Amino acid sequence: MPEPAPHPDQRPARAPRADVRRNREKLLAAARSAFTAADTAVPLESIARAAGVGIGTLYRHFPTREALVEAVYAAELDAVTESAASLLEELPPEAALRAWMDRYAELVSAKRGMIGGLGGGWAPGRGATVSTRERLTGAIGALLEAGGRAGTLRQDVDPDDVITLLLGVFLSTAAGDRTERTRQLLDLVADALRAPGPPPA
């Protein structure tokens, strides 16, 4: 006797089709560019057009502007936190740490643009502040640990304190285009994290 078909709620969810995933990725990329480049709210129609899809496709993926911004910010946060491992594969730990700081600065800049585009009153990542901080701290911790093994970065520093220093830099350079000033301050933070004396031979 054949077994009864599973209830619809018990069937495994199918993975999104490749074209659906591509459309979502194109929308996120277009939205990121639009939100970070503009100081005012960006028409969703222009984002859909830049992604090469219709406005209906955008709304199927992101029913509201806030949902789109949340998704853009989440994707950017993923990219920044996951970049620590790839940077360590390409660069010495102290150089990887400094490059990661620039990636983090880009995330903060993008977040400001997204908030500005929404007209304020809302912040990406709301309700996930603790989780976000933990992920960023974990990335810093991995970089410091690698630097400790290489003898190039200090090991007496709490990664959470480094995040606090970086947030202070970004807060102090928030007004206007202060890119060069941000780089200078990040250089100072990176120098403070270097291990004293030459690395072991």
Structure description:
- The chain is mainly alpha-helical.
- The protein folds into 2 domains: 17-63, Arc Repressor Mutant, subunit A (Orthogonal Bundle); 69-201, Orthogonal Bundle (Tetracycline Repressor, domain 2).
- Helix content is 68%, strand content 0%.
- It is built from 8 helices and no strands.
- It has helices at residues 18-37, 44-51, 55-61, 65-90, 93-118, 129-150, 159-172, 179-192.
- Helix 6 crosses helix 7 (159-172).
- The protein is elongated, with a radius of gyration of 21 Å.
In short:
The chain is mainly alpha-helical. The protein is 68% helix and 0% strand.
Helix content: 55-70%
In terms of structural class, how would the helical and strand content be classed? mainly alpha
Task: Please state the CA-atom Rg, rounded to the nearest Å.
Answer: 21 Å
CATH topology descriptor of the largest domain: Tetracycline Repressor, domain 2
